[in-house]
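Lecture notes, part 5. Sequence design as translation. It can be helpful to think of inverse folding as translation between two languages: the language of shapes and the language of residues. The source text, in structure tokens, appears below.
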């Protein structure tokens, strides 16, 4: 899926004073946008988003957004404006789950796409952040973002839902069961099913609570890791993320070295997709129970961009069909001319 580089390029184009840009200005920035083909070729793959025209000088190709893309960008900006507090709360929760309530800015920047934050969110702290956030110096010369919990207890999605159902009362080391969604056709051995039932009765430690007292080899520690991954994916726009992108979080969230095994050991909670040579971890509950996890405010906008991407496929397919029709017509004319010359 090329949605992320498309939106990044869209932002570059729309920020220009003329809302257009010559290909020469971005042709050598492919790696910056995680594009592995020529940038011009990439832009031409999406004619429903990027419109090509001849520039004012030297007949160079320029690109601007189509009207539909401009309107979708406008909707996106409205979401950022109206949902600033909601997005701020997601960032706050992300940092509060960390070991010391502080995260390196480079890690936060790397998670902006998943959290649904605009790329300039941290660059405008006076507008986007409140007094609970502060920038700090970390070890190794890193700059970090710290958050004060302000003395209030932060509940995870799992805790809030369990309280609504009357099966959790907020007591220390109280058990909470994870909603399970078995895949069709997946059969587990009897002893594995028994272990899952036992695991559900293990005490639940919220990702916002201190875990330093836990034995890292215990079932309680494993349930804490599963609970962390559940909460993290709940915060993300699409409730999914590339598995390798999550591995860089181990140090700051107190995760075990082989945290990736949690996805494999709990197939009723997580689903692993291996499309396009990429392993993506997906939270099943977000897709099986639409009332359990609040929809991210940016999700509808991203779906509109995806719809535009699919529209590009139709446009390109029609262009190819028209070209074939024209080519066949030219071939028939050549045959007729050759016949006349022979006659």
């Amino acid at each position: 899926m090329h949605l992320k580089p498309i939106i990044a390029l869209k932002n570059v184009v729309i920020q220009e004073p003329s809302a257009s840009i010559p290909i020469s200005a971005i042709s050598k920035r492919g790696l910056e946008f995680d594009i592995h083909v020529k940038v011009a070729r990439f832009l031409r793959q999406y004619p429903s988003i990027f419109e090509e025209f001849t520039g004012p000088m030297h007949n160079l190709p320029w690109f601007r957004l189509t009207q539909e893309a401009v309107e979708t960008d406008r909707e996106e900006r409205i979401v950022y404006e109206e949902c600033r507090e909601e997005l701020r709360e997601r960032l706050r929760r992300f940092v509060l789950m960390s070991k010391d309530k502080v995260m390196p800015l480079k890690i936060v920047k790397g998670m902006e796409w998943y959290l649904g934050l605009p790329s300039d969110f941290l660059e405008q702290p006076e507008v986007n952040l409140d007094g609970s956030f502060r920038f700090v110096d970390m070890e190794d010369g890193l700059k970090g973002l710290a958050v004060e919990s302000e003395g209030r207890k932060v509940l995870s999605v799992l805790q809030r839902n369990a309280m609504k159902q009357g099966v959790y009362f907020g007591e220390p080391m109280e058990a909470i069961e994870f909603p399970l969604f078995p895949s069709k056709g997946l059969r587990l051995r009897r002893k594995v099913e028994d272990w899952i039932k036992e695991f559900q009765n293990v005490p639940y430690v919220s990702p916002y609570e201190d875990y330093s007292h836990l034995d890292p080899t215990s079932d309680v520690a494993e349930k804490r890791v599963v609970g962390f991954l559940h909460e993290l994916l709940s915060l993300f726009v699409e409730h999914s993320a590339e598995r390798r992108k999550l591995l860089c979080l181990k140090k700051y969230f107190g995760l075990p070295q082989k945290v990736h095994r949690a996805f494999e050991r709990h197939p009723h909670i997580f689903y692993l997709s291996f499309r396009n040579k990429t392993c993506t971890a997906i939270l099943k509950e977000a897709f099986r129970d639409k009332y359990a996890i609040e929809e991210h405010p940016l999700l509808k906008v991203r779906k509109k961009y995806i719809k535009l991407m699919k529209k590009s496929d139709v446009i390109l397919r029609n262009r190819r069909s028209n070209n074939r029709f024209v080519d066949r017509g030219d071939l028939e004319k050549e045959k007729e001319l050759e016949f006349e010359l022979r006659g």
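The translated text above is only one of many valid answers, since several sequences can fold into similar shapes. The radius of gyration is 25 Å.
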